[in-house]
Amino acid sequence: MSLTLKADLSTQFSYLNPKLDIKDFNGQRAFVANEPVLNSEIVAIWGGKVVKESELGEHSGYAHQIEKGFYLISESSELFARSNEPNCHFSGQLTMVAGRDIAAGEVITFDPFRESVGDKFDEKAWGLLTSLDVEDCDPELIRSADAIKRYVIELCDLIEMKRFGDCHVVHFGEDDRVAGYSMFQLIETSCISGHFANATNRSYIDVFSCKAYDPEVVEEFTRKFFRGGVTRKTVSNRY
To answer: In CATH, what number does 3-110 get?
Structure first.
């Protein structure tokens, strides 16, 4: 990769892993690993211009959603090949990380239609953590201790996790910005926890287990149960 091209790309990304190079792939330019990239290693931290959804226009092909109604425009993002079986995913809103070990010569890929999707359970890992941020939840559901307990019971049954003891649901928070219910449920393979913000009607759910489960099943069930909108998902194998 030329120094001039690297300088140009620096205006589009806050960080670009030096292990990447640009090569021809299926008749188009794409980022390729010029040496092995390790699982969970940062590939890029995206930069660019933030615009509202109504301002996307011709830039929609380069857009990455970072908040409801807001998108980050990084025109050089076209150099990341699209795939429904990507080797990279987003951790949070701007950081792209390797979802597995990537060999030298392998094209860097991601799925722009998934908010934050990582690999499923790695047999070498101690456990799998799925973190969900769910916007626009039904206000009545997240303000109901009984509904939150029902969510936990149904989720555990769905992903075949055995609950250990009762589900604890407590409402607290002197500051209105963070007031709402918090939930904690031990399971025999670890725990499920959650926080529900009254001020924004958002839910924050963590499912951690040393037994394998499907993060996409957890995401879909959670969003539908709380009747939520945009969902951000981060999946991490813990070693």
So the answer is: 2.170.270.10
